[in-house]
Amino acid sequence: MSSQLNNIIKIYGRQPTDLDDLAACIIKVIESQPNTWFGCKKKVSNFRVAGLAWNISHKLRISGKQEFTGRVWIRYADKILGFGSDPFDKTMTRTGTGGGGSYNGPWDATYKQYYRLPRSVCRTIPEPFLYSWDYSIDLDNFPALTEWVEAEKLFCTLAGQKFVLHHQFNWTDPAFDEADKAFLESTKDMLTS
């Protein structure tokens, strides 16, 4: 078992056993890290995740490696003091092309409305700090997750079905979700487009 996986187990308490469990694990690992700027010793606070979503599919590479690939969206509660992808480094998952913005993600309506209206109107909710990237999860990094995928494959084989595993995850902190809904409702008539 790798030292990174041992660190994840230390933070999360166990290996993730399915994809929803992995998402919860990733949130906890990200929130365990200090929000600092490149080697700055002064700790402002830990990262706080206000939302996480992904849309991923299982892939079998020519090399025989199994992975999930797709898109990930994250919403931080506070401004990031580095790159938005930095906290993913300790999750044993990989971010790719993308960056800051909503990228048609789950908080797209809030993001667009926030940046279209005057600041004085938008101060009713925290600024949405959104990021999105291409995303991959190498199953070699997560033995318990690999066992779950293999069990799913076996189930499909026994049922005479083709194995296709696609997963969507979408979680928003309830306080942010309620604030977004109230903001969108209160500002819906302020813009015509």
What is the strand content?
A: 15-25%
Oligomer status: single chain
Report mean pLDDT, rounded to a whole number: 90
Query: Which spans have pLDDT < 50 for at least 5 consecutive residues?
Result: none
Distance, first to last CA: 53 Å
Largest sheet: 5 strands, antiparallel
Compute the CA-based radius of gyration. Answer: 19 Å
Apparent shape: globular
Helix vs. strand class: alpha+beta
Widest sheet, order of strands: 3-4-2-1-5
Total strands: 5
**Run of helices and strands:** HHEEEHHEHEH
User: What count of structural domains?
Assistant: 1
Helical fraction: 25-40%
Number of helices: 6
What does this structure look like?
With 193 residues, this protein is α+β, with helices and mostly antiparallel strands. It has one domain (3-187). 34% of the residues lie in helices and 24% in strands. It contains six helices and five strands; from the N terminus they run H-H-E-E-E-H-H-E-H-E-H. The chain has helices at 3-12, 19-31, 108-116, 119-122, 143-158, 174-187; strands at residues 49-60, 66-76, 94-100, 129-138, 166-172. Strands 3-4-2-1-5 form a five-stranded antiparallel sheet. A hairpin with a 5-residue loop joins strand 1 (49-60) and strand 2 (66-76). The longest helix has 16 residues, at 143-158. The chain is globular and about 55 Å long.
Topology of this protein?
Elements: H1 3-12, H2 19-31, E1 49-60, E2 66-76, E3 94-100, H3 108-116, H4 119-122, E4 129-138, H5 143-158, E5 166-172, H6 174-187
Antiparallel strand pairs: 1-2, 1-5, 2-4, 3-4
Main traits of this protein?
193 residues; alpha+beta; five-stranded antiparallel beta sheet; 5 strands; 34% helix
